[in-house]
Amino acid sequence: MNDRGPDFEELVGSDVDPAERERLLRVHDALLQAGPPPELTSRLASAPTPVVRLDRRRRRAGLLALAAAFGAVAFAIGFVVSESGGRSTDRVIAMSGAGGASASLEVFEIDDAGRYAAFAIEQSAAPQFPTLRRHRLAVGLYDRSGDKLVRRRRVELDVRDARTAVPELVGEPRPDLLLLNDDDLTYTKIRLDDRSLKTGVADIGSLPDSLPRALLWGAAWDMTRDAEMAARDYVTLVLHGIGTETDLTAVGAQCRQAQLAVSSYSDPAGRADLSDRWESGLWALAEEAPGGSDHQLAFVRAAAAATHTDRAVGRVHGLLDGSGPMPGLRVDTDLRWSLVTALARAGALGPDDIAAERTRDNTIAGQEHAAAALAIRPVPLAKEQAWDEVVVREDVANETQRSISLAFQVPGQSAVLAPYVDRYLDVAASVWEAKGTYRATLILRFMFPSALVDQATADKVRSWLDSATANPAARRLVGEGLADLERALRCQALDAQN
Q: How confident is the model at residue 13 (pLDDT cuts 50, 70, 90)?
């Protein structure tokens, strides 16, 4: 049994708004810390039947409420029956016992004419949560038609066991894109075959509807995180499809995920070229987007977050000081801080510049942004001050500490972050008792050496977990950090093969 509990990423997915994601993360942590509910005593195993006496004045209201309740139940039953289309109740998805989405993939044979000679759907579950769910899902077959990907056929079925045959597809010509869980009828991770993956990478923007695009985005990201799709291919997918994506939530999510793929999941030997391609691609998308549009703003934010070359640093400076404006783009206070943070991360702004911006935005939010910009700089003094403000001092506001901790670990800053691996593990042993739940969670989650994606760091953390006697909640958070680190190593190894 995995003592870390259900993986948060698997539970909520990747397309959640950042603020909502943070709220869910706090709830997730609180539930795991609380542990399972205690067993009921025999006296409480069945609830007593209360005796309710209504006086005359309330009796009529009670009868009306009871009638309304019966009506609601009758309506609900009728709705469920009509929605089920007459299917028996044994087809309800079994949710209990599963710690995350099961993975589904298609297994097929192609005959000499390019048609399916056999077709089946296989599903698997994580070893620590081995329950296989029953799913009602659809399989969609999409072909290129002009400049669109058009669904040719849809087959809906129940997937019950580890392998479910789909005889309805035997004899069908192999499509350009085969999409499991089409129309998103169930909660499951899906996989794409090689042909479908190539089609998706090249032509995701050719899908006219947002739902199949969302399923394709999700499948590609799951495959990337699970080291089944090379990071560079995922970046290509995002650059090809994000410009025509109409769902702004998807735009933001894909930009953040592709940035992670570039900085942590890509082969270090080829990262410089991939980073340049990602950076230049985002600036091109920003220029092509309609002036003043939400898409333009989203692409400028993503491009600023990807900025590392001198040319891009110059463009960010131009947007910030007004010497290089972009048509239609309004550089408000929030965007200014994104630009300031990007320049600070690149080492192009110092403390005096950040202090000047802090004076310009004399608010609590401005204070938090300025603290993060100071911490994100790639210099030893910045990291030492950040460590002191988050881990040592007791007079820093909680939200300011959170902003600093989020800016501490930065990919590409391994030289200045390497000394903090041992310091982190030393603190992790007692931080839960010393700092309390909120502070300890900030330190353990965000100060974890996530930017040092190498086997030596993973081995050191693994050794600590094998020997430390820290609070179980602290061990769980360190274990989650290690799982993410090992995931990144697997992704880098796959990307190196491609």
A: low
Sheet holding 116-124, edge to edge: 163-165, 116-124, 103-110, 189-190
Q: Whose CA is closest to 459, among 480, 478, 477, 486?
A: 486
- pLDDT tens per residue, range 253-292: 999 999 999 999 999 999 999 999 999 999 999 999 999 9
42: which DSSP letter?
T
Count of all residues that appear for the chain in the document: 498
pTM of this structure: 0.79
Instruction: Give the integer Cα–Cα distance in Å for 196 and 142.
Output: 9
Residue 432, token pair as written in the block: 């839960």
The tokens describing 454, both together, are 């190498």
Q: Nearest CA to 280 among 311, 326, 243?
A: 311
Per the listing, tokens 């091109």 go with 284
3-class secondary structure per residue, 185-215: CCCCEECCCHHHHHHHHHHHHHCCCHHHHHH
- List the chain domain ranges: 103-188, 419-498
Q: Residue 176 and residue 174: Cα distance in Å, rounded? A: 7
